[in-house]
C-alpha cells in the first residue's frame, strides 16, 4: 500500500470560503499543479439560519479574496437546484418517515463528487480537491488498482466519515491536500500567508447552509401536528434481549433479535407531555421536549410518525438508548473497497461508527441475502434509522450503509 501521489495536473479546488480549502489550494499550487478555485453556491434561503455566521455571499467573497492572494483563477457555480433536489428534498422525506438523515454525507456523494466533479471535468480538470481532513491511498489487488480512503492525520478533525459513500470512480478523481496536516498546522500556514480566511471560525451546521433552526427548516414542508410524549421506564421488560458474547455463531433469528430496535406502543408507558410533530425529533435527542419535573433529563428513545408519538426515557443511561446491533438493507450497502465486499454467509470484524467523531467500536459484520447485520462488542448509544454506519480496518474506511 502507498499514499496516493500525483504528477503535475489540472486541479479544480472547491473553495468554500473557509481556511481548510484555502490552504488546500495553496498546497496544490506549491506542488506545481495548475489550480482553479471554484465556489459552489448551493443555498439562497437565509430565513431559517440562526446567525449570519456563514452566509454564502460572505463565503463567496472570502473565497475570491483567497484566489486573488494565491494568484489562481476563480469562478462561482450555482448548484442550488441540484442541492435542493438531491439533498434538501431527501432530508424532508427522511424526517417525514421518522428517520435521521445525514445531509453532509449525501452532499459529498451527490454534489461535491458528482455534480461539482462533472463541472470540473468539463473544464478539463484531472482532479477535484477539497479541504477535508482525510487521505487517499492506493493498493494493487487481484482485481486491479483499488483506491483507499484513509483517516486524516489529525484524529480530532478526521472527516473520512463524511466521505463514506464515495465510489472508486469518484475517489480516483479526488485529492485531499491537507490530510497529512493538523488543524493548527493549517491555521499556521494561513496566517503566514495572511489569507483572508486565516482566523475564520469553522462553519457548523448543514453542508453549504450553515447553522439552521432545524424545526423551522423542516416546517417549510413538514407541518406541526400535536402528539403524545410517552415515557418508558428504564427497567421495562422490553429490554430483556439476548446478550452478544462475541465470536459466536448466530442463526438468522438471533441476528434479527440482536439488531432489531425495540418497538414501542403507547400502552408501554405513561403520557408526560405533548409535542408538535414526531418528525421533528430523533433518537438520543434531549432538547426541545419541554417536559419538566423530572429528576433527570428526558431523552428520545424512538419516534413513530404513523401514530405521531415520541417515546422518551429518563437519564442518559436509560436502557432504551443502547443498541447491541443494527441492520443495513441490501440496497443500502456500499463498499468503497469493492474487492473486500462480503458475500452472503461471510463474517468479518471491523471498527464501526454511526456518526461523526464517535469513537470507533469493535463489531462483527454478518452478510446475509437480505442485507448486513452489525453486532457491536459493546452497546452503542442513540442508533437511529437513516444514519450512516461506516466500517474501518485500522485507519481505512472500507464501506458504509444506511441503517434500516
Descriptive report:
This protein has about 400 residues and is an alpha+beta fold. It folds into two domains: about 1-215, 3-Layer(aba) Sandwich (Rossmann fold); about 225-400, Translation factors (Elongation Factor Tu (Ef-tu), domain 3, Beta Barrel). The chain is about 25% helix and about 30% strand. It is built from eight helices and 19 strands. It has helices at about 20-30, 55-70, 80-95, 105-120, 170, 185-195, 215-220, 250-260, and strands at about 1-5, 10-15, 35-40, 75-80, 125-130, 135-140, 145-150, 175, 225-230, 270-275, 300-305, 310-315, 320-330, 335, 345-355, 360-370, 370-380, 390-395, 395-400. Helix 1 links the parallel strand 2 and strand 3. The protein starts with a strand and ends with a strand. Mean pLDDT is about 90; it is low at about 245.
Helix content: 10-25%
| Through-space gap between termini | 34 Å
> Which of globular, elongated, flat, extended, rod-shaped describes the shape?
globular
The named CATH superfamily of the largest domain: HUPs
Quick take:
With 404 residues, the chain is of the alpha+beta class. Helices cover 23% and strands 28% of the residues. The protein has 2 domains: 2-217, Rossmann fold (3-Layer(aba) Sandwich), CATH 3.40.50.620; 223-402, Beta Barrel (Elongation Factor Tu (Ef-tu), domain 3).
Give a quick set of tags describing it.
single chain, 404 residues, alpha+beta, Rossmann fold, Elongation Factor Tu (Ef-tu), domain 3, 2 domains, 10-stranded antiparallel sheet, 5-stranded parallel sheet, 8 helices
Amino acid at each position: 500500500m502507498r499514499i496516493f501521489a500525483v504528477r503535475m495536473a489540472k486541479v479544480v479546488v472547491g473553495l468554500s470560503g473557509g481556511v481548510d480549502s484555502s490552504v488546500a489550494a495553496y498546497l496544490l499550487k506549491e506542488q506545481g499543479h495548475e489550480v482553479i478555485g471554484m465556489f459552489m453556491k448551493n443555498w439562497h434561503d437565509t430565513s431559517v439560519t440562526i446567525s449570519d455566521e456563514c452566509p454564502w455571499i460572505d463565503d463567496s467573497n472570502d473565497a475570491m479574496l483567497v484566489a486573488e492572494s494565491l494568484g489562481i483563477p476563480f469562478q462561482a457555480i450555482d448548484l442550488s437546484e441540484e442541492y435542493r433536489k438531491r439533498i434538501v428534498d431527501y432530508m424532508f422525506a427522511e424526517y417525514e418517515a421518522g428517520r435521521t438523515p445525514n445531509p453532509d454525507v449525501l452532499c459529498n456523494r451527490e454534489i461535491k463528487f458528482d455534480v461539482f466533479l462533472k463541472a470540473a471535468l468539463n473544464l478539463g480538470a484531472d482532479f477535484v480537491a477539497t479541504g477535508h481532513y482525510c487521505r487517499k491511498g492506493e493498493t494493487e489487488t487481484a482485481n486491479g488498482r483499488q483506491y483507499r480512503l484513509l483517516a486524516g492525520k489529525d484524529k480530532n478533525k478526521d472527516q473520512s466519515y463524511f466521505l463514506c459513500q464515495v465510489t472508486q470512480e469518484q475517489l480516483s478523481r479526488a485529492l485531499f491536500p491537507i490530510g497529512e496536516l493538523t488543524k493548527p498546522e493549517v491555521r499556521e500556514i494561513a496566517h503566514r500567508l495572511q489569507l483572508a480566511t486565516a482566523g475564520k471560525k469553522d462553519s457548523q451546521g448543514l453542508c453549504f447552509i450553515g447553522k439552521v433552526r432545524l424545526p423551522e427548516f423542516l416546517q417549510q414542508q413538514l407541518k406541526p401536528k400535536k402528539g403524545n410524549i410517552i415515557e418508558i421506564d428504564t427497567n421495562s421488560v422490553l429490554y430483556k434481549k439476548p446478550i452478544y458474547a462475541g465470536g459466536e455463531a448466530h442463526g438468522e433469528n438471533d441476528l434479527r433479535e440482536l439488531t432489531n430496535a425495540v418497538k414501542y406502543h403507547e400502552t408501554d408507558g405513561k403520557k408526560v407531555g405533548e409535542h408538535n410533530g414526531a418528525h421533528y425529533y430523533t433518537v438520543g435527542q434531549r432538547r426541545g421536549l419541554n417536559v419538566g419535573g423530572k429528576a433527570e433529563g428526558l431523552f428520545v428513545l424512538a419516534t413513530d410518525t404513523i401514530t405521531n408519538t415520541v417515546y422518551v426515557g429518563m437519564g442518559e443511561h436509560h436502557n432504551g438508548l443502547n443498541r447491541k446491533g443494527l441492520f443495513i438493507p441490501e440496497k443500502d450497502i456500499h463498499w468503497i473497497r469493492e474487492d473486500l465486499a462480503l458475500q452472503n454467509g461471510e463474517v468479518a470484524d471491523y471498527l464501526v461508527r454511526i456518526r461523526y467523531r464517535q469513537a470507533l467500536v469493535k463489531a462483527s459484520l454478518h452478510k446475509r441475502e437480505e442485507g448486513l447485520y452489525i453486532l457491536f462488542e459493546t452497546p452503542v448509544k442513540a442508533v437511529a434509522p437513516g444514519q450512516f454506519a461506516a466500517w474501518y480496518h485500522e485507519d481505512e474506511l472500507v464501506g458504509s450503509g444506511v441503517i434500516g
